Amino acid sequence: MTILDRVYDIPDDDELAQLVGAATPHFALQIRERVASFAKSLPADHPRQAELSRQLERLERLASGGETGGESTTDLPPRSSLPGARQ
User: Fold this and answer.
1) DSSP string for the chain
2) 56 contacts: CB under 8 Å, gap ≥ 6
3) pLDDT of 50-80, one tens digit each?
4) CB–CB of 36/73 below 8 Å?
5) Are the CB atoms for 31 and 59 separated by under 8 Å?
6) Rounded to whole angstroms, how far apart are CA atoms 64 and 54?
């Protein structure tokens, strides 16, 4: 059996948190596809659909908007990176 043939169970809350919790913008869409495949395998009225949908939206925002690390403004004036470079 190859890894592509393996059928994975729907993750519980802890497993889902581990899967999506450390997502970076670079890998958010790959993780989103995995979570989407879990959601597609469940009936539309399944209790897990709500949490999976929330995580799909979060991963989409992360992939398209990146992350700020909580820093919204800088307290230093801009500086040129090279001597003599224009600002």
Assistant:
1) --TTTPPPPPP-HHHHHHHHHT--TTTHHHHHHHHHHHHHTS-TT-TTHHHHHHHHHHHHHHHHH---TT--S-SS----SSTT---
2) 32, 35, 36, 39
3) 999 999 999 999 998 887 666 666 676 776 7
4) no
5) yes
6) 16
Q: How far apart are the C-alpha atoms of 10 and 61, rounded to whole Å?
A: 23
Residue type at 53 in one-letter notation? S
Q: Is the pLDDT of residue 1 over 70?
A: no
Cβ contacts of 64 within 8 Å, gap of 6 or more: none
Residue type (1 letter), 39: A
Residues 51/16, Cβ–Cβ less than 8 Å: yes
38 close to 22: Cβ distance less than 8 angstroms: no
Do you know the residue count of the chain?
A: 87
Q: CA-CA distance, 38 to 18, in Å (whole number)?
A: 15
